[in-house]
């Protein structure tokens, strides 16, 4: 390569294009060949590829690609709720709104921009949203791809209301895996979880790792800030690092549920696993003028180098 990373123009590595539905998307690239795509609809990450161009996020082949709805896969942003309660739509409205590129974002620490290809996106409360969730907010999201190919998301949500509000949140991350029955998650053992298949019953994890042989829909509570998802067949590990996100939702629909989902292939559960860094059990409370930050960094390492292995 003729240029070192030090002189790489990372803004020039950010391209704004349109997807097949004419919706704006931002493409981030590194000089080594890693990339990510971010839709302006929902600020949803729709693709993350390593330096060899291999896709790392799952997207269903059956996803219903129609305007103004999140697609089934990638990383949708769940705000101001995760799950389904009250009058708000499932997983909140942020994932189904058009976001803007934020041309003048407040500065982040220097190490959050050095050596990265990144974009800043902005969502503000609309009159429509205020009818179902009457709170004024500014939601800023920085998406970046590092020179190592890591994918980083930094969410900052500010209360610009005259009154406090609370919310739950998740980066609803669909990982692409080789075979779900060969996957194990390390870092959640011994934790309590809420089991959504049993009326949110609180259960203590007994296994030395989480493995999969049937439908799983759980929220692990007060989790460590580093989780590893080991893919035995590919001999690679997803390393999930997070800050400000105490909970981890783990989901795989398995065979029966897959067949009931119109936007999901009958056999696709074998190639996907959702591991979501989240705030679910104890919602964030923001007073007027306060700001919350939630960070997620995803990386992929050969399993032989994984400290968990």
Automatic annotation (TrEMBL):
EC number per UniProt: 5.1.3.15
GO cellular component: cytoplasm
Taxonomy, superkingdom: Eukaryota
Keywords in alphabetical order: Isomerase
GO annotation, biological process: carbohydrate metabolic process
Catalytic activity reported: alpha-D-glucose 6-phosphate = beta-D-glucose 6-phosphate
Pfam families (UniProt xref): Aldose_epim (PF01263)
GO MF term (any one): glucose-6-phosphate 1-epimerase activity
UniProt similarity note: Belongs to the glucose-6-phosphate 1-epimerase family.
Name by which UniProt lists this protein: glucose-6-phosphate 1-epimerase
Species of provenance: Vicia faba (Broad bean)
């Amino acid at each position: 390569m003729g240029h070192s990373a030090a002189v790489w123009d990372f803004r020039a590595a950010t391209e704004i294009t349109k997807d097949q539905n004419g919706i704006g998307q931002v493409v981030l690239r590194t000089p080594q060949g890693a990339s990510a795509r971010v839709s302006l609809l929902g600020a949803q990450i729709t693709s993350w590829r390593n330096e060899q161009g291999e896709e790392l996020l799952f997207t269903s082949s059956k996803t219903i690609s129609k305007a103004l709805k999140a697609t089934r896969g990638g990383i949708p942003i769940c705000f101001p709720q995760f799950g389904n309660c009250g009058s708000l739509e499932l997983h909140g409205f942020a994932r189904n709104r058009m976001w803007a590129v934020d041309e003048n974002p407040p500065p982040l620490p220097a190490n959050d921009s050095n050596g990265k290809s990144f974009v800043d996106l902005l969502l503000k409360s609309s009159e429509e949203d205020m009818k179902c969730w009457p709170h004024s907010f500014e939601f800023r999201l920085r998406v970046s791809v590092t020179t190592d190919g890591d994918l980083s998301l930094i969410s900052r949500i500010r209360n610009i209301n005259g009154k406090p509000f609370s919310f739950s949140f998740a980066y609803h991350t669909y990982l692409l895996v080789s075979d779900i029955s060969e996957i194990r998650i390390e870092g959640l053992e011994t934790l309590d979880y809420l089991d959504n298949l049993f009326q949110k019953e609180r259960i203590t994890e007994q296994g030395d790792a989480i493995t999969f042989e049937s439908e799983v829909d759980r929220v692990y509570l007060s989790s460590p800030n580093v989780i590893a998802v080991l893919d035995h067949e590919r001999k690679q590990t997803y390393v999930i690092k997070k800050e400000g996100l105490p909970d981890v939702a783990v989901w795989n629909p398995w065979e029966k549920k897959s067949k009931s989902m119109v936007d999901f292939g009958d056999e696709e559960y074998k190639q996907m696993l959702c591991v979501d860094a989240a705030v679910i059990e104890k919602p964030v409370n923001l007073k007027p003028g306060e700001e919350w930050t939630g960070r997620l960094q995803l990386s992929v390492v050969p399993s032989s180098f994984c400290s968990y292995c």
